[in-house]
Amino acid sequence: MSSAEQWTHPEPREGPAATAAAPTAEQVIAGLRATSEGGPELVQLLTPEGERVENPEFDRYVADITDEDLRGLYRDMVLVRRADRESNALQRQGQLGIWVPLLGQEAAQVGAGRALRPTDMVFPSYREHGVAWCRGIKPEELLGIFRGTDNGTWDSVAHRFHPYTIVIGNQVLNAAGYAMGQRFEGKVGDDDGEATMCFFGDGATSQGDVHEGFVWAAVYDAPLVFFCQNNQWAISEPTERQSRLPLYQRARGYGFPGIRVDGNDVLASLAVSRWALDECRHGNGPVLIEAFTYRMDAHTTTDDPTRYRLSDELEAWKLKDPIERVRVHLVRHGMADQDYLDSVQADADKMAAELREYCFNMPDPPVRQMFDNVYAEPSPVLDAQRDEFLAYLSAFGGEH
Amino acid sequence: MAAPAINKPQTAPAVQSLTMGKALNLGLRAAMEADPKVLVMGEDVGKLGGVFRITDGLQKDFGEHRVLDTPLAESGIIGAAVGLAVRGFRPVCEIQFDGFVFPGFDQIVSQVAKLHTRTQGRVKVPMVIRIPFGGGIGAVEHHSESPESYFAHTAGLKVVACSNAVDAYWMIQQAIRCDDPVLFFEPKRYYHSAAMKAEIDPAATPDPLFASRVVRTGTTATLVAYGPSVKVAMDAATAAEEDGHSLEVIDLRTLSPLDLGPVFESVRKTGRMVVVSESPSESSIGSELAARVQQECFYSLEAPVLRVHGFDVPYPPAKLEEHFLPDLDRVLDAVDRSLAW
Ligand SMILES: Cc1ncc(C[n+]2csc(CCOP(=O)(O)OP(=O)(O)O)c2C)c(N)n1
Ligand SMILES: [Mg+2]
């Protein structure tokens, strides 16, 4: 399954058949609802109950994972969730203008994030706080976007983690171009090859930019992993508003492999991401990963999900919680005891307290910031506009 | 075939005091009741009622075939609406936020704007593209922009902006009845402002859609504004009164075609004009106004036309937007500069 060859010619399995007479909308929806468990093709290594299931194709991609590593993945997820909850609370307390929760998507993101190497490049959307964490970006560095002081301050080149992109789909084409560049510079072809991973949602798969990104990456054999987090919702619209068939199957039409992974299983996400990146490093990209997961909180802090989805759905997904299954697994197999779990919790609490403290002390940006960096080259016209405005403001007194 | 007349009250028979958001909702409802060919389409407009709730309840009452929760693709929304219009429908598209119209930009300038010309007038494109625009809501990037100039610059499109609840109620219905494509800009920051609630009488006769309006008379200088800036201009006029300045305020309402008669008349009277707009100033509605006024009112002008706009920078992070947006002080400063000329 790890070769591109097999994936470009998959055997059709059950599910809505693309060749049959067009099904009614009701049939399509019924079909998709029936596969809301992820379907038989879902790659899963750790069940929601914390059982390790064998997978002959993907086990080898995590064969090197030690107990220590597994604890590390657990710790990542706990801290990422804690930072998310703290940021959400900071919004509720008026410290942030808005927050975009990642609750429920920790495993998908940490699995993907930990599969990446420092030399790989990442193009996130706006919910990838867990991937940011794995790229060494502190939760503090995300706050400015949501507090309204900046558009993200991390060094996107040094971290190889592009700025968050809010316009749905834009970053996918940008990622395709970046990955083309990796190839043009001869950085693919062996184990040490570079790769790019771009993140987007189920809703984004309808955007022209995403389809064009598929085409471009395919035509130029770009080392690009398309990492689609299907969290079942695009604000109020369920995934079936965007597609008749499971999203990973779209890849076939563009001529590259697509795979669906349990996005709430960090081990599976890690394994599948490693496989996909490996393919890309060796020149067999691009690859599409659909991480089947769930947005457990609102779309953003301004959203009210009770208007469009039933709480039953959330309850069902809570049973598939990404963190809980790892905790159970660790404890059951003696890889972690209560002391360890407590220490992770203590780390999370400490981090959250620091995050909070940091947020409260964030200074407002100086007015002149909005005139900075509009152009790479000097712009006398804009400089004059800035100087005129600053002079005007200084008449009111104060520092700008 | 003539568009059906605006139907007389069904859902809002009585005079009501409404917010702009609610007025738009009732206006859309009235248009849908009047003409079964009117469709509402966009992201999250159905079950959720739109992220601003402007289409709240419409899908429930008119059905999923008339209120479409579309796939997440603005080019798709606009492009498919063109096809529906060709087929005889009157689509009303909602673009979720100003900054998200750009994936649909190609369809707007290449097809929406040009189809009537390209078919020697055989094919009409009677669609409305609703765009919540402007800042002041403390949002993240791409949620506070003022892209109206791009569209006013494009031949074949009509562009309007409402500034108050009464206009919102009538203008949306008139735009839907219009046989040309209309870009309909709504000042999102006032959608739910209780302070801006206004009495709406569904039995009243509205002003024409493509007409500017003097909203406050004065003699010292003319302020020209549209959309969210009308309130800023009005507040400035109130404040200026205390300084003994009598400012005339014009709500443009229509940005393309411009209705400059009232503007010229006003400037001939006051001799001074200040434009107020949230959009960047370069090649903007303000630029066009300045050019036209200096051409038509040259001998009446006591000072050059001044513009109080957003700056020529990307819309800044929320903590800086109060400095980006024209405010009362900047408007009054411009009035002072005009008077001191
Ligand atoms: C071009 C564009 N249109 C609309 C929006 C508004 N918007 C923000 S997020 C979103 C839904 C995205 O859904 P999905 O791609 O599934 O990602 P998720 O938010 O679920 O992670 C929409 C419509 C946008 N940001 N950009
Ligand atoms: Mg989604």
UniProtKB/TrEMBL annotation, chain A:
Any Pfam family hit: E1_dh
Region (Disordered): 1-23
InterPro entries recorded: Alpha-ketoacid_DH_E1_comp, DH_E1, PdhA/BkdA, THDP-binding
Requisite cofactors: thiamine diphosphate
GO BP: any one term: branched-chain amino acid catabolic process
Keywords, sorted A to Z: Oxidoreductase, Pyruvate, Thiamine pyrophosphate
GO molecular function list: magnesium ion binding; oxidoreductase activity, acting on the aldehyde or oxo group of donors, disulfide as acceptor
Domain Dehydrogenase E1 component per the UniProt entry, residue ranges: 75-353
NCBIfam families: PDH_E1_alph_x
Protein name: Pyruvate dehydrogenase E1 component subunit alpha
Species annotation: Actinokineospora fastidiosa
Gene symbol of the encoding locus: pdhA
Automatic annotation (TrEMBL), chain B:
Cofactor: thiamine diphosphate
Stretches that traverse the bilayer: none
InterPro entries to which the protein is assigned, alphabetical: THDP-binding, Transketo_C/PFOR_II, Transketolase-like_Pyr-bd, Transketolase_C
Enzyme class name: oxidoreductase
UniProt keyword Oxidoreductase, yes or no: yes
GO biological process, one term: response to nutrient
Superkingdom of the source species: Bacteria
Sorted UniProt keywords: Oxidoreductase, Pyruvate
Transketolase-like pyrimidine-binding domain boundaries: 18-192
Alphabetized Gene3D superfamilies for the sequence: 3.40.50.920, 3.40.50.970
EC numbers: 1.2.4.4
Entry's Gene Ontology molecular function annotations: branched-chain 2-oxo acid dehydrogenase activity; magnesium ion binding
Protein name, per record: 3-methyl-2-oxobutanoate dehydrogenase (2-methylpropanoyl-transferring)
Organism, as annotated: Actinokineospora fastidiosa
Lineage: Bacteria, Bacillati, Actinomycetota, Actinomycetes, Pseudonocardiales
Designated gene of the protein: pdhB
